[in-house]
C-alpha cells in the first residue's frame, strides 16, 4: 500500500516529466488530449501533451471519478518516446482500450476509447487536434457515446422530418421500439462492464440490419428505436420479428462469461388520425409495453 501511495504521488498531474518536445526522435506534433464522452462531465477536455494524467477515485487525480467501480489509483496516461501509453495500476475492475482490457500497458492511437469504470474518454492527438476536438463535440450532440449509434436528440430530429414527409406525401412510415429483456439482472449479476458490453453488442447486431435510409438510435437505458421510412405496418412487423430472432440466437461472450438475451419489440405505423411525432412514438411504445406484459421476447404491432 505504501508503495502504491508513493507511486501515485510521483504520478501527480502537476509533476513535470521531461517535455515530450525534447524527446529524441520525435518529428511530429505531440499535442494530445482526452475528451470525456461518457461520465459526469461530458465534453470535458484534459490535456495530456507534457504531463502524466492520472485517473482514479483519489481526489488528487488529474481526473477524479467518484464511483465505486473506480479504484483509488486506477490508471494513468503518460508520454513516451514512441507516443502515449495507457497504464493500468492494478485496478480492481480493469482499464479498457477500445473495449479490450489492458493488461499492464498499451499504446494509444488517436481515436482510441479509454474506459474506466462508468466513464469513457476519447484520445485525440496529432496536427489537426483542434478540428478533431470540435468534430468530437458535435458528434456528442448526435451520437450515444457507449453504443455509438444515434442518440435520442438525433432520433427526434430525423423522425420530425420523416413524419412531416410521410403525412405530406401520404407515404408509409413505421417505428420499432426495442427493449432488452431483464437487462437489469445482467448489471446486478455480472456488473456494469458486462452490461455495457451487452448494450454495445446488441447495438452492433441490430445496426448490421439497418439500411442507409433508416435510423437506429438509443432511446434511453436498454431501450432503442428504429425509424423505417417507406415501410408499411405488415412489413415492419416482419422486420421486427427478424430482429427478434437475430437477438435471441446471438451469444454475448465477454471475459469468460457467455449470455443469451432476448428483446421485446413494439411496432407503430403512421395512421390518418396521427398529427404529431409523439402519436407515432406512443403507438410503438404502447405495443412494446404489451409485448413485455405478455411474456417478453415477442413482437406486438
Walkthrough of the structure:
33% of the residues lie in helices and 28% in strands. The chain has helices spanning 2-10, 129-142, 152-169, 183-190, 192-207, 233-249, 277-293, and strands at 32-38, 45-47, 53-56, 63-64, 75-79, 84-88, 95-97, 100-101, 105-108, 113-116, 119-125, 173-180, 215-220, 223-229, 251-254, 257-260, 263-269, 299-300. It has 301 residues and is of the alpha+beta class. It contains seven helices and 18 strands. A hairpin with a 2-residue loop joins strand 7 and strand 8 (100-101). It has a six-stranded antiparallel β-sheet. A five-stranded mixed β-sheet has the order 4-3-5-6-9, with no helix packed on it. The longest helix has 18 residues, at 152-169.
What ranges have pLDDT less than 50 throughout 5 or more consecutive residues?
1-28
Indicate the radius of gyration in whole angstroms: 22 Å
The number of helices is 7
Kindly report how far apart the N and C termini lie: 59 Å
Strand % is 25-35%
Instruction: Give me the secondary-structure category.
Output: alpha+beta
Spatial shape:
globular
Strand order in space, largest sheet? 2-1-11-10-7-8
**Largest sheet data:** 6 strands, antiparallel
Q: Give the strand tally.
A: 18
Quote the average pLDDT: 90
Question: Helix-strand pattern, N to C?
Answer: HEEEEEEEEEEEHHEHHEEHEEEHE
State the share of residues found in helices, binned by percent.
25-40%
